[in-house]
Amino acid sequence: MESFRNRLHKFKKYFLCKKIITKPKINKLLIYDESRSVEFKKIIKNRNASVLSIRGERLNLYVLVKSILKNFKIIFSLSKLKQSYVLSFIKEVDPKVIITYIDNDPFFYTLKKYFPKKIFISVQNGYRFYKQDLFCTLQEKKMKNLSCDYIFCFNKDVAKHYKKYIKCKTLAVGSVKNNSVKKKINKNKKMCLFISSYGISNLSLEKKLLPKVIDFCKDFSLELYVLARSYSQEEKEFYFSLNKKIKFLEKKKYFEYAYSITDRSSLAITLNNTLGYESLSRKNKTIFFNINDRELNCNSYKKFGWPSRNTKNGPFWSNRMVGENVYKLLKKIHLINSENWKKIFKKYNTIEYLDNSLLLKVIKKNIS
Question: In what order do the strands lie in the sheet with 265-270?
């Protein structure tokens, strides 16, 4: 059961958020969840889509009052109030298509049963693991009768997991955000990139790994860059505490920037995060250390390309961080020629780098 403190926090958030008093306009396309909606509108090439805010960014008072008048008792239950508000908002907008870029929200998959004639689309936004992620949540909560017309996902292996819990048609299209950015071929041969995972670990792995990477860079006359994960000043200070010569690349608001950086790098290093897999899909030399220090026993996080079946250690990945092992792997991939890298890439790449024509076609077809 949700704690009183959490409920109080949510009440405060909604009380202080931006209020809208006008009735929502009818729109053929509705984006569920305002999170990442600005970049998602750009990806799907539709800046006129309506947006349903569910995290307290803004609150439509017209819809809220209408929801409460239907059943006054729902004000005593945040979950019932949220459900009533969402259903009422959808009725007011009356879209043909409801789409979300937050594919790991279980609640979204409960909505189709209330609007069987509307088209529901979910788009995978990040690499999925098991624990503390969508599939574990669906299994532990034993959620049933979940459905979605289309789920656009990274690959066929993860598609099987969506279909296990959700009645849907899956389409393996890679990362749509990654797909929307054209690859730039302007390599900096001296650039070694570490893709930061700051904020999702206690940083013990970075403290062990970065000194080894720094030594490697010295031996091969490379410059070490760190691509920030957050806007936090503390992240920058942390990496400078390891070595002040690190070139720290601050996070930018436009998502294309991160991909341009991975494209420029001669070598990218990741602790098994989404941008690492996207970098690999763009045929960039990318090394994965599939290890984590989060307080959860998550075997899927320690496996390269989960849920694809791969060995613990492979041509460009490892779940060991012994000094000699790290150096050998870095050296091997750095020195490998482009022809041999392409062969390895073709065999082990986990997500495709395509265009988004299929997603755009499905949207256009169903809002016509």
Answer: 247-249, 223-227, 188-195, 265-270, 286-289, 317-318
